[in-house]
Every structure is written in C-alpha cells, then in structure tokens.
C-alpha cells in the first residue's frame, strides 16, 4: 500500500526544500511488515510528511516499488536530495529508480555504528570532525589524518560507504573558509595590544608584555613603579582637547518664548467683549461671567485691555 496525499505533495513541491529522508520501521501490532515513509523539512525546520507505504520486507524489490510510486507522485524536483541509512537494498533502489538525477546522502550515525565494529583507536577522533567539515581544505586535512592513523579504513569507506556523508561534499555553493568569525577578526581581550591598551607584566610591572615572556629582573621594593595604566596616546589627547574647546565655545541654547494656547486666548477675547458690555447684562449673565473669571487659568498674564483687569 502506498499513500501520498495531494495536499502534502503540493506543499512539498511549492513550499519545502528539495530534500527527502527515506526510512522504514517494523510493524509490531496485529499486522507485520515494514512502514516506510518519505519525510521532508519545511521552512520552520519541522518534519513534513510527504508519502508513506507498507510492504513486507526491506528488500531491493520492495524498496524499488516504494521509490517508483514516490517518483510518480512528486517527480524529480530540481536539486532533489535523498538521505538514507546504510541499508543496501535502499541504496540500490535509489540508484535504480532515480539514477544520477538526485544527490544521495548517507546517515553518518549509521556509518559510525558499522565503522566501530571494524576499527578502533585514534582514528575515531577524526571521523566526526571530518563529517562536520564545511570546506574542502578542512575535509582533506582530516582525511589525511585518518589515512595516517589507520590506512585500512580508507578502502573500507570507499567500498562499503560510497555515498556522500561529509558536509564538504554536499552540492551547492562551497565555503571558502570555515563558518563563524575568522580568527584574525576575533574580539580582542582587555589589555591586548591594538584594542584597549597594552599588557602589564606582573614580574617587572612594565607595559608591552606579560609575565610568561618576561626576561627582565623582578621589580624590588623601593623602586619607583610605573603608573597603574598606560598613558594615553598623543593623538587621543589632542582629540579630547579639541572636543573640550568646542564645548566651551559653543553658544548657550536660547529658551523659546512661551506661547499661550489658542483656546485660552480665544476665551480671553470673548470675556473682553462681555466685560465691555457688562452694564447692560442681566444678573444671571453676571453670575456666569464671575464663574468664568474665577476658573480661567493665567488670566493675569494675558495681554488684555485695562478694563478687563480692573
């Protein structure tokens, strides 16, 4: 039985990377057999199921049938990569169905599980770093170390594990250097030359070197010691003096004049007109006028006619 839901297939072709991990597991319930699955990785680095199938055993014929149905469902997208374990039947079926149109990678954990059965010693120290190497130069250096420590391992890897298992051999743009910050551009420590001052030796208490490489005699008691920190450079002193002189010569900032809000000015003009006509207003209007005069803010600061302020 082979199942490939169209929505999953369309999502893989449109929104996922051209990468498939193919493997199977045993069925231990009411029915026996193998449950095979083809799984991709989406944009969130989560597993994305593409297709699954059930067959009897992990043979070349059964794996060939499963991969043939998978090819009918998804085709051969550009740059497709198929990642498998060390199963010989699956390895043969991938080459038979897809040929050279896909990149076939091998799981390094399964490779090391088989490698430890045949070899031991210092060669094991270089295997994982060789798989992690991102550049051809780094990979070749570690490959030479494997050859020096265990020459018999090279024919074994070339005959039993022919697929790609090192990052340096993956398709795509090749890295010219290792990932991460270059050593020549690393963040320097405090006191290191060229960053935050010079080192001070704890033996002779001079600047420019450390105690490990000091050839001067130890400083004795009573000898005048150098300052606790290295003096500032001449250029830095001139820059600080220039900055201080510019600050002294800079004019003071003039405070802007305070402008009354338009709403208060508008109320004051209205009250001016009302007060000029106060002799003809009714007692009720006089009461309202006194209320506004009492609660109007900053009335004495407004430039109003003399009749209003009396």
Characteristic key phrases:
6 strands, alpha/beta, six-stranded mixed β-sheet, 11% strand
How far apart the termini lie comes to 104 Å
Number of strands: 6
| Secondary-structure-derived class | alpha/beta
What letter string, H or E per element, gives the SSE order? EHEEEHEHEHHHHHHHH
Low-confidence stretches: 268-281, 297-310
Percent in strands: 5-15%
Helix percent band = 25-40%
Rg for CA atoms: 42 Å
Number of helices: 11
**Which strands sit side by side, in order, in the main sheet?**
1-4-3-2-5-6
Shape: flat
Mean pLDDT: 75
How many independent structural domains?
Answer: 4
Largest sheet: 6 strands, mixed
Question: Any chance you could write out the topology, listing elements then pairs?
Answer:
Elements: E1 2-3, H1 6-15, E2 19-26, E3 34-41, E4 47-55, H2 60-74, E5 81-84, H3 88-97, E6 103-106, H4 108-115, H5 127-132, H6 136-149, H7 153-160, H8 234-249, H9 262-276, H10 283-295, H11 306-309
Parallel strand pairs: 2-5, 5-6
Antiparallel strand pairs: 1-4, 2-3, 3-4
């Amino acid at each position: 039985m082979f199942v490939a839901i169209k929505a999953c297939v369309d999502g893989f072709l449109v929104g996922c990377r051209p990468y498939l991990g193919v493997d199977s597991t045993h069925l231990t319930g009411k029915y026996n057999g193998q449950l095979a699955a083809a799984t991709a990785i989406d944009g969130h680095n989560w597993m994305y199921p593409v297709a699954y199938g059930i067959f009897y055993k992990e043979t070349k014929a059964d794996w060939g049938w499963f991969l043939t149905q998978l090819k009918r469902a998804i085709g051969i997208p550009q740059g497709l990569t198929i990642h498998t374990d060390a199963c010989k039947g699956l390895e043969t079926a991938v080459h038979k169905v897809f040929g050279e149109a896909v990149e076939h990678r091998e799981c390094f954990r399964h490779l090391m599980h088989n490698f430890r059965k045949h070899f031991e010693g210092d060669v094991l120290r270089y295997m994982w770093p060789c798989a992690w190497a991102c550049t051809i130069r780094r990979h070749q250096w570690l490959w030479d170390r494997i050859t020096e420590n265990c020459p018999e391992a090279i024919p074994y890897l070339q005959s039993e594990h022919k697929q790609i298992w090192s990052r340096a051999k993956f398709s795509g743009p090749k890295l010219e250097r290792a990932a991460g910050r270059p050593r020549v551009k690393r963040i320097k420590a405090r006191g290191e030359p060229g960053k935050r001052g010079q080192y001070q030796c704890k033996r002779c208490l001079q600047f420019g070197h450390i105690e490990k490489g000091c050839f001067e005699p130890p400083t004795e008691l009573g000898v005048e010691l150098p300052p606790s920190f290295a003096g500032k450079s001449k250029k830095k002193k001139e820059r600080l003096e220039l900055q201080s002189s510019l600050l002294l010569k800079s004019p003071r900032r003039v405070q802007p004049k305070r402008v009354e809000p338009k709403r208060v000015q508008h109320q004051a003009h209205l009250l001016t007109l009302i007060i000029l006509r106060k002799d003809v207003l009714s007692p009720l209007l006089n009461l309202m006028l006194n209320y506004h005069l009492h609660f109007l803010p900053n009335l004495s600061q407004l430039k109003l006619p003399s009749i209003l302020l009396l």
